[in-house]
Amino acid sequence: MTTYSLNWQIEIDAESPVEATRQALKIHRDRNSTATVFDIYDEDGNHTRVDLLEIEEEQMSRAGDRKDLIDTNEQAKVVPTKNHWEDDPEYPAEDWQYEVTLGNTRLGYHDWVEHERDAKRVMS
Question: What is the pTM of this model?
Fold first, then answer.
C-alpha cells in the first residue's frame, strides 16, 4: 500500500486563522461544494491532480439510473504530471524563483507553471 500526501487549497478572507479554518472546513464538508480538486503526491514525490466532481459527473452520465456504481482507479479521471522535483522544461524553477524574489508571485512552483500556461493560452 502506498502513502499519499493530499493537498486541498482555498483562499479565504477571515478575521483570524481559526475563523479561516472554520470557513474552509464548512466548505469542505458541504455536499454541494465544487471545491473538489486535490493535488496528490506519492512517496516518490510524483504529482497527480484529481477532480472528484468531474469524476462523479462522468460516472453519473455513464451510469444512468444505476445505484450500485462503485468508484475504482480505472474509472477515475486523473491528470498525471511530472515528478514533484523535476522542473518543467518550458518554465524552469529559476524563472519562478526570480519572479518570487521580485514579489511578482506568491504561488508555489507547480501552481506558477499552471498559471503561466493558462496566461500563454489566453494570449494566443
Answer: 0.45
